[in-house]
Design a protein that fits this description.
Blueprint: H1 3-9, H2 23-33, E1 46-51, H3 52-67, H4 84-99, H5 108-119, E2 126-133, H6 138-158, E3 162-166, H7 173-180, E4 186-195, H8 213-216
Antiparallel strand pairs: 1-2, 2-4, 3-4
Helix pairs in contact: 2-6, 3-7
Length: 221
Amino acid sequence: MELADAVRGRRSIRKFQPQDVPKSVITEILEMARWSPSWGNTQPWTLYVLTGEPLAEFKKMNLRQTLTGAAIASDVPMLEKWPDAMKARYNELGKVVLSVQDIKREDKEGREKYYKDMVSVFDAPCLILACISRDNLVEYQMLDVGLIAQTICLAAHDKGLGTCLLAAAARYPAEIRKIAAIPDDKKIVVGIALGYPDPSVPLNNFERSRAKLDEIVYWVE
């Protein structure tokens, strides 16, 4: 696959087929991803790969914690307020995601079902949890985690797989540690759902948008 095709063709997958990904294929993806750049070649990331019974246990836990209203206690908190332009893009995506499922704003049951699907990582057969050291500054480590996550997503797309980056997979780190044996000195940053996309689902096919260059690029000449 050409690089341009991989970059433009990769998208967030929100429904996976019930088909396991061979461990050899996951290993090939991670083998490529380990060549991602990092600050000073520090390679601050640690990846935990959940499949099978541990992943099933994770999905049950994440759904249970969500439905019971457990307080979100992410190791790396999300912003509570976004700049207006970013909030507008976020809200627009939310509208599109619901509309392609024919879920109306007043359809509480439909919205809750989608939310349950999300915290259950969209039925993905594999979840990669990206972690960083608790002892180091978060900022550059987060940049580096973003780099390896992007490489994982592109490498997966190249192999006919799909991915979705999910902050919702890192909300309850204390419970996750019990399942994945992640030590306390690691911060759980994000989950990467991985699997074969279901091409029949509108959620995996809607037209996406991106900001135009003149909105994000400033030439200094």
